[in-house]
Amino acid sequence: MNHPVFPFRQIGDFQITALSDGNMAASLDLLSGIEPTDAGVIQHYAGIAEAGDIHINCYLIRGRGRTILVDTGAGMLNNVGGQLKANLAAAGVSPDDVDTILLTHCHPDHIGGLLDAEKQPVYKYAEIILHPREAEHWWDDKKREIANERGQHNFRLVRQTLQAYAPKVSFFNGENIADGILPVWLPGHTPGHTGFRIDSGGQSLLIWGDIVHYPHIQLARPAVSILFDCDPALAEETRKNVLEQAVREKLLIAGMHLGPAGFAQVLSAGNGYGISWSTE
Fold first, then answer.
1. In terms of residue numbers, what domain contains 181?
2. Which of 15, 146, 148, 208 is 20 to 30 A distant from 155 in Cα terms?
3. What is the pTM of this model?
4. What are the 10-residue block averages of pLDDT along the chain, 280 residues in total?
């Protein structure tokens, strides 16, 4: 298997590659539990040039005869992202090569790349797998009716996308997706928010989805939530549990908003946590 130019890690039989879909212009005002000026200071000392921007990662998993994609980025929805397709090609993969797409959840910056400009499936041969509670949430008419304008748009997008892939949509049942790849329910950000743990060859990696959007801020201050969290209190509890687990097990971490480096390890730091970018 040829090594791509993108950040990647070999976990036993699986090669996991971080593929950027680009950046999403955002604002530190989206955060609660911290003053924007304090959040900006953390970003400044972390060397973040555009303090409010959120980077979007997707992850390609290859091994044991499988070509699996975790999330598909924003796909140029609202002029956000759209770099995944070119980066996939540069990694030697066409959309038709992808046999499975694992969804961490159904926010636009994670499912926007599933449909093309004509609203047709981009990944024609891929099975789409997500948590059943995620689908239940987006198909709930009562929740749709009380959503704000942005939320209404999200409900329409999710329903349109799942309908386009309907024959190939299935749900996690708590069992391995493939030998060595296990879904991990991480609720709070959305009801069915899911991570993926890969264990192979005595090594482990957790793709933790949207446990953080601003890693430097939310590791230093795990109680900080973002406006996009469906249940901020539960998201905080899940985040704290995952961070503690990552330290305890010395887990290699990957995340959709972890930054261009794609992979990191979590360290204890005072009353919070720090991040060590993985370069090997």
1. 8-277
2. 208
3. 0.96
4. 75 97 96 97 95 97 97 93 96 97 98 96 98 97 94 96 97 88 97 98 97 97 97 98 97 97 94 82
